[in-house]
């Protein structure tokens, strides 16, 4: 304790130094004309007929923050902006607020009236940065994209003012060259790289080898993406974040550098010897700087960078022997090698390890890490600020700037939820807090293509001067933009009240009874009432306004129906648990009903392309140039969303509520599990849960990866089906699910020791401690 007080006294709070993050130095690689043209191209691709005039003028930056102004004159929209990205952002502001349109990830509705509304508005961004991406997003959501999809996505970033984002770069192609120069054999390189679906974790030192070897077509394709997309980002004034060396090295280094100190990395999740436990290079060895420089030179290809580099040496890894001096030396080595490569460098670091393992990260060690880098040369991502904010725990990170980020989902798992209340409040409070070092907002989801509403709201906190006061009115507008009609206001009132009101400390991992491995020990929970969700569904299915006939409406109709059935299935699961002690007949009836709910989920999901597993697999196979590559790509696609590892190391972590997944994976395993139990009950036979699970592993889970499956075609009109399912399931009366246990009172946080995570002990992922108060 004394030591802690002393530390505070000695160091004190340091002032914020933002010289290295000045946007007029970072966002101006491309000339105003180039930025203007890039912005115009995006705008014209959205609305070819609209007359839009753009001026990009970097002197418009206000207090180093992006600015745009919109003005309509006659039939023309005039945009003046500090950067290309700000101009496109301004255009979307116009579309959203004056034309009631929406350009979301999966659906878009753009309607510009022939007589333009009168507009004269200037918007100054609240912060220096709008940041985008988690280090995992590329593996869960962008995995199979090619230049075309990336280009569309960069346009989406610009439309939302995102001016700092991870660049898609051909990291492994660069590493392969570096490794060869260092003396690794082709075989060693092949054994090191994972397959495409697991690269995020290879890069952070969590796993190696699984799903590989990485095909040649992959490297070529990634190089092509890098070339096109990084250039596009520069043209728009978006800062592309390049990767840097973190210290994790392949096992072959033991052979090549026998005299170098190599630390060992402890097993991550359940990966065994073949795939786990890489090596960590002594940060004091001159080799650290040498490799760092080789990699940066190779990966940037000698071209400009955005001066901001990402490196996560400690993300869910335990390095042994572990010490504060290793932490300090690593921080210094990463910073020094970066600044020797680029004197303007800033190191971007995720704060995740402080959240996930507070025992490894007592307060003094966190402070050592963050203060070993000169002030302003480190930029922190407060990664899941909506649930586990860390900026206050670590004294606004001791003067280093940070970005308030919403992580929202893990593994791109599907299910409707969001922390609307928190994100509409905490962002504004953190920004205006005395001594705040917050310099941006960010989206850091592990995956996208879901719950667009929370991302849309979060992005608005980049320019709104205060929280949305009337959230129901805001949701009404959101629905109007998305559907083009007003009929869904009532439905959205109930969605706000139910799925989007999450505000608890329970870990939100997107795994529900239906998508989890069958067991009688699951403990479903919820934070809202079944009746509120059913009201939302009712108000959706009875909408009979042809103005609402659009992709966005259909998407949400499917999603809400799915969500209501998911809730019903969990209630029925609890009934199954009870009925195990009843008659075989009663139990049989409940089981049939539970499986029927899953069957209906599959039916409703098959109504929309967006909820099909087919594209995921098809896009993967499109990368293949021969049969062995095809096998690799398909294995990667299927394994990631099911077993996640050769032996189900983190089974279902990235599960997907897609139609075919229900038909070929979730229903078969629950059906086997429950029906073998029922048979045993009927015949007075012994039944063993573990044996049954092992059997399911072989006949369903492992088989899924190797067998092709067909797309499920819709059975009837989506609205007819939704009404039918609503009427079938609404009338069934069952108890609500147990509520989540801990509520977050504003300003009063609970320590992890007070949080009862017992409902999550069956979670097959590693049970971790979650920090809300640091250990001194
Ligand atoms: C397929 O392509 C890979 C390169 O990724 C090559 O190593 C392999 O030999 C090829 N296999 C066949 C069957 O042509
Ligand atoms: C390692 O050190 C030993 C003993 O000092 C020396 O003989 C050997 O050449 C060194 N090996 C390498 C690869 O530097
Ligand atoms: C902010 O902190 C400074 C220094 O601790 C103090 O002088 C000032 O009064 C505080 N301002 C507010 C609004 O609390
Ligand atoms: C929807 O409205 C049309 C015309 O107003 C009517 O004919 C039809 O029966 C309505 N459908 C439902 C399901 O209410
Ligand atoms: C369960 O019910 C179904 C449908 O009525 C029936 O076909 C099946 O034999 C029953 N199973 C048992 C074990 O009673």
From TrEMBL:
Alpha-N-acetylglucosaminidase tim-barrel domain location: 130-465
Entry keywords, A to Z: Hydrolase, Signal
Alpha-N-acetylglucosaminidase N-terminal domain sequence ranges: 41-117
InterPro entries: Hex-like_dom2, NAGLU, NAGLU_C, NAGLU_N, NAGLU_tim-barrel
Name of a matching Pfam family: NAGLU_N
GO MF, one annotated term: hydrolase activity
Signal peptide: 1-15
Domain Alpha-N-acetylglucosaminidase C-terminal: 474-726
This protein's name: Putative alpha-N-acetyl glucosaminidase
Organism: Operophtera brumata
């Amino acid at each position: 304790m004394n030591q802690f007080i002393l530390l505070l006294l000695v160091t004190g709070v340091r002032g914020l130094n933002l010289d290295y993050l000045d946007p007029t130095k970072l966002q101006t690689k491309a000339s105003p004309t180039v930025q203007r043209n890039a912005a115009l191209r995006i705008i014209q691709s959205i609305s070819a007929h609209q007359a839009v005039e753009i001026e990009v003028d970097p002197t418009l930056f206000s207090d180093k923050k992006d600015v745009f102004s919109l003005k309509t004159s006659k039939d023309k929209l005039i945009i003046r902006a500090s950067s290309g990205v700000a101009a496109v952002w301004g255009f979307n502001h116009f579309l959203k607020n004056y034309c009631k349109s929406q350009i979301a990830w999966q659906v878009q509705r753009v309607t510009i009236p022939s007589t333009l509304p009168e507009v004269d508005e200037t918007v100054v961004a609240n912060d220096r940065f709008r940041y985008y991406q988690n280090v995992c997003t590329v593996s869960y959501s962008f995995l199979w994209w090619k230049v075309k999809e990336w280009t569309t996505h960069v346009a989406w970033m610009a439309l939302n003012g995102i001016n700092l984002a991870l660049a898609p770069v051909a990291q492994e192609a660069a590493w392969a060259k570096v490794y060869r120069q260092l003396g690794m054999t082709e075989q060693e390189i092949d054994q090191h790289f994972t397959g495409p679906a697991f690269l995020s974790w290879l890069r952070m030192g969590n796993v190696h080898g699984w799903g590989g070897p990485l095909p040649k077509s992959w490297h070529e394709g990634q190089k092509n993406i890098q070339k096109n997309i990084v250039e596009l980002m520069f043209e728009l004034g978006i800062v592309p974040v390049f990767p840097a060396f973190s210290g994790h090295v392949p096992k072959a280094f033991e052979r090549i550098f026998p005299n170098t100190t190599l630390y060992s990395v402890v097993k991550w999740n359940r990966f065994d010897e073949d795939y786990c436990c890489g090596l960590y290079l002594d940060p004091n060895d001159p080799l650290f700087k040498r490799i760092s420089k080789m990699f940066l030179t190779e990966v940037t290809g000698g071209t400009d960078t955005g001066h901001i580099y990402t490196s996560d040496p400690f993300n869910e890894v335990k390095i042994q022997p572990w010490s504060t001096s290793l932490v300090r030396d690593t921080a210094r080595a990463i910073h020094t090698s970066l600044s020797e490569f680029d004197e303007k460098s800033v190191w971007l670091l995720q704060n995740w390890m402080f959240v996930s393992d507070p025992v490894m990260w007592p307060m003094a060690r966190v402070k050592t890490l963050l203060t070993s880098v000169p002030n302003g040369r480190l930029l922190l991502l407060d990664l899941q600020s909506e649930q586990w904010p860390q900026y206050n725990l670590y004294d606004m990170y001791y003067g280093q700037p940070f970005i308030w980020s919403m992580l929202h989902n893990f593994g791109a798992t599907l299910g409707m939820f969001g922390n609307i209340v928190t994100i509409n409040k905490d962002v504004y409070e953190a920004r205006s807090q005395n001594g705040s070092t917050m310099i941006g907002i960010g989206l850091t989801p592990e995956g996208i293509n879901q719950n667009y509403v929370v991302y849309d709201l979060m992005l608005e906190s980049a320019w709104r001067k205060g929280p949305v006061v009337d959230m129901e009115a805001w949701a009404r507008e959101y629905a109007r933009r998305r559907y083009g009609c007003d009929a869904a206001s009532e439905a959205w009132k109930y969605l706000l009240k139910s799925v989007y009101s999450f505000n608890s400390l329970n870990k939100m991992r997107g795994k529900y009874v239906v998508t989890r491995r069958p067991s009688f020990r699951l403990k479903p929970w919820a934070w809202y009432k079944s009746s509120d969700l059913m009201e939302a569904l009712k108000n959706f299915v009875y909408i009979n306004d042809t103005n609402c006939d659009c992709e966005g409406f259909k998407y949400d109709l499917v999603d809400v129906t799915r969500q209501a059935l998911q809730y019903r299935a969990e209630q029925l699961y609890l009934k199954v648990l009870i009925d195990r002690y009843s008659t075989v007949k009663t139990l049989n009836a409940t089981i049939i009903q539970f499986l029927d709910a899953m069957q209906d989920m599959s039916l409703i999901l098959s109504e929309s392309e967006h909820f099909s597993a087919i594209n995921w697999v098809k896009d993967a196979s499109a990368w293949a140039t021969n049969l062995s590559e095809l096998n690799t790509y398909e294995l990667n696609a299927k394994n990631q969303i099911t077993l996640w590892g050769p032996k189900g190391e983190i089974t279902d972590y990235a599960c997907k509520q897609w139609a075919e997944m229900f038909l070929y994976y979730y229903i078969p395993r629950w059906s086997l599990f429950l029906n073998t139990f029922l048979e045993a009950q009927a015949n007075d036979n012994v039944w063993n849960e573990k044996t049954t699970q092992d059997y399911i592993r072989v006949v369903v889970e492992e088989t899924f990866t190797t067998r092709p499956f067909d797309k499920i075609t819709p059975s009837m009109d989506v609205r007819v089906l939704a009404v039918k399912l609503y009427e079938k399931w609404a009338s069934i009366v069952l108890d609500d699910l147990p509520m989540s246990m801990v509520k977050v009172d504003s300003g009063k946080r609970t320590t992890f020791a007070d949080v009862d995570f017992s409902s999550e002990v069956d979670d097959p992922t590693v049970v971790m401690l979650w920090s809300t108060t640091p250990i001194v």
